[in-house]
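Journal club prep — side note

Before the paper discussion, L.F. wants everyone to see what a predicted structure for a comparable chain looks like in token form. Sequence:
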Amino acid sequence: MRVTFVLPSGERREIAAHAGQSLMEVARDNGLPVEGTCGGNMACCTCHMIVDRAYFQNLPRPSAEELGMLDLAEGLRPTSRLGCQIRITAEIEGIVLKLPE
């Protein structure tokens, strides 16, 4: 499956991902600037990503806990999500995500 990350510079990187991986894992495993300080335990917001609107409706709804953490993220947008909470599935094949500065 493919995931496209748009870096803060505007550079686009298309990356192969495996079903079940989180977007945070895909980004970190490929050297992209995503910290994921808490290791995916939803105790920080350093894996904040902005989902392209075309894919946003295909994602599961965020939990109240995720929404609470997103309130702490810089550059919050209506389609912001935590990358640790989104797993690669066939429904989001080709997803495009912007990494905030």
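L.F.'s comment for the group: The domain at 2-98 is CATH 3.10.20.30 (Ubiquitin-like (UB roll)). Keep this in mind when we get to the figures.
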